[in-house]
Amino acid sequence: MILAGKVAMVTGGGTGIGKAVSQVLAKNGARVALASRNPSHLEATAEELKALDHSVLPIQLDVRRKKEVQNGVARILENWGSIDILVNNAGISGLNRIDDEDDSRWYDILETNLTGMYLITKEVLKAMRDDSSGRVINISSVLGKFGVPGYTAYCASKHGVVGFTRALALEVVKRSITVNAICPGWVDTEMARSGIRESAAYQGITVEEFKRQAIEAVPIKRFNEAEEVAHLVLYLASDKGRGITGQAINICGGQTMV
Question: Which residue among 145, 161, 231, 242 is least crowded, i.e. fewest CB within 10 A of its CB?
């Protein structure tokens, strides 16, 4: 129970990587506040964790809305008094061709993945105690390291997460707070499956052919599991990761070495 006594907040905690992170942190002793704007995902995951006697607090909020963020953080403090670990996992993807006349997807992706992370981190840092091994862990992507045609918004946002991480790590280092980013490659989640369908259509090939090509481009010849990402989060959140800050760590099966 290496996180016993710790309070963690996980955004996008109801599904995919966020759900796996919430489960692993809770199993290792943390009290976990699940934040999501999707009430069905939120309640389902909260009930699963409660059934295992984990301490869970579901909070419905949209990370893009400052007032909702403030109210959500206040609820955690009212219930548990502190926040020791923040996992910024909330995020969306999607194709946004540069010749598309509709700019709405650009704004939605940037506001969720980048501005939302900024708003939630800013509020949590007000509550995070100095000299108490605070942790901020941001879920970026390997697309924060390289580009993919048709995904300018997603790539821009995930590159932004890495830059935000590196700058913030230096800003809060004297408070004994570490800030790191994790950059997953393909992970077997519904978001990935949606991306595969969209990318296959964009390239004019079948879903099966796109997935075959995607796996072939990964040296270990498989997608990662969400739980593998979650255990890297656990390491960074624990005392074992206290010497790591300002890093953007790949977990991608060797897809990128940068």
Answer: 242
